[in-house]
Amino acid sequence: MIRRLPVFGLLLCALVVGCTTGSETPGPSATGDGAGANRPATKRLRVGMMPKLVGIDYFNECRKGAEEAAAELGIDLTYDGPSTDKVELQVQMIDEWIALG
Fold this sequence. Notes:
The chain has helices spanning 4-19, 57-73, 87-100, and strands spanning 46-49, 76-79. By secondary structure, the protein is mainly alpha-helical.
């Protein structure tokens, strides 16, 4: 169990890095006045949250808290996890999330 914790942490970090995009800080506007009238729309931040298993009371409460925080902060939250505690399933799901962007 303890040996799996670093693997899960690494996968979670990879998910966060893989699902985020570079900074979309716009430069000065076309008129050069700095007002930013022609700025491109910034994308809404998306966060993926994966518990070890779905259906466990503790993780259900974590999900509720994450959903409340996401709504408060204007973040899109994707919450999903495997129905069995197999690392391979987590890796597969993370790969799918990354492929979705």
